[in-house]
Amino acid sequence: MNLQKVTFQNKEGQTLVGRLELPVDRHPHNYAIFAHCFTCNKNLSAVKNIGKALTSKGFGVLRFDFTGLGESEGDFADTNFSGNVEDLVAASDYLKDNFQAPTLLVGHSLGGSAVIFAAAEINSVKAVATIGAPSNPNHVKQLLKSGIEEIKTSGKAVVNLSGRDFTIKKQFLDDLETKSLPETAKNLRKAMLVMHSPQDGTVGIKNAEEIYLSARHPKSFVSLDGADHLLMNKKDSVYAGEVIAGWAQRYVDIPEESNLKSQHQVVASLDSEDAFTTAMKVGNHYMIADEPTSFGGNDFGPSPYEYVSAGLSACTAMTVQMYVKRKGWSLENIEVHTSYGKSHAEDCEDCELDSAKIDTFHREIKLTGDLDEKQTARILQIADKCPVHKTLHSETQVITKLV
């Protein structure tokens, strides 16, 4: 996991704290912002699962705590819905200034309502996905019904939500009443995905219908059948994330993968700005070679010597299995563990000199099956006869020409 802690300032100058999760095997092709539910935070399991599903498809995902929640500064009692929208705009500005402007907004529950309003203010956003979102922010009043009268008469009240006490002020309620989500959704003119569970007991499915009907095409609806409001079942949140990732790729710009062609078995291509991250076409397969971060690479793929070691491991396993099948021996599985390094030659005269070191592959083989000692000994002999092994031991030549 490539996870970074990030901080940025909201409109009031308070520090908001988030986590930026990046794909482990590539640079992000697009960035997304996730808005969590009312009184939740960035570390809700559903938020993490959806984020991981997006990063697995190449998105960079910023999830952060709204003002007054989680690790972010500020007093929740002094916040309102408009403040959440402003926090999303601040998060967008942070990505724009430090990485790349976001093209996708994802919001859960009240966060879903917030991303619709925020998308209207963030020009770079091309797609919006909501999960269990209320069609009117004023819906939150139903969650506060135990303290509504006190808030109206005293200006504030302590309300227990999901086992936690929160102070809610009248200005929060007043702000909710000024927001018309249907009108905002109607004028948004950006791709929208509405996701909702028919069994959602917190925000009824009717809300999804109202959002969907208000939005303009292109718009989509996906039922999260059987899920609860917070998507506490991991399967539900992972599914939601995978659907969002697949849907969003239709509306955001994704650079085409390198169309490498060659008359040779392997071609590698490296641009000057890519450090060591090298695109390769190996046979009919596309892959990445890289170096570890400690060596200045991005660690997006195996190093060149790891590929050589991989070739030795794979060839050894194939050769042994082919041999034992021909013999009719019982070998259920073979594991070949290989690593590369430089070691001193055993009988060299100048072992302290770097030039005295030789390339060394350390290979360990694990056999699972009903084999006797004689069969096992023979298998180890066969391992040393695999084609890649023999190539590494033979005199080779590399003929280079400019094309």
Provide structural commentary.
This protein is an alpha/beta fold and 403 residues long. The chain is built from eleven helices and 15 strands. It has helices at residues 45-55, 81-98, 110-119, 148-154, 170-177, 181-188, 206-214, 234-248, 304-327, 373-383, 387-393, and strands at 2-9, 15-22, 30-35, 59-64, 104-108, 127-131, 156-161, 164-169, 191-196, 219-223, 266-269, 278-282, 285-289, 330-344, 357-370. The strands form four sheets. An eight-stranded mixed beta sheet has the order 1-2-4-3-5-6-9-10, with helices on both faces. Helix 2 (81-98) crosses helix 3 and helix 3 (110-119) crosses helix 6. The radius of gyration is 29 Å and the shape is elongated. The model is unreliable at 344-349 (pLDDT under 50).
Defining traits:
403 residues, alpha/beta, eight-stranded mixed sheet, 32% helix, elongated
User: What's the helical proportion of residues?
Assistant: 25-40%
Return residue spans where pLDDT drops below 50 for at least 5 consecutive residues.
344-349
Average pLDDT: 87
Strand order of the largest sheet: 1-2-4-3-5-6-9-10
Principal-axis shape equals: elongated
Number of strands: 15
End-to-end Cα distance, whole Å, is 40 Å
Global Rg: 29 Å
Number of helices: 11
Question: What string gives the helices and strands in order?
Answer: EEEHEHEHEHEEHHEHEHEEEHEEHH
* Helix-strand makeup class: alpha/beta
- Biggest pleated sheet: 8 strands, mixed
Q: What share of the residues does DSSP label as strand, in percent?
A: 25-35%
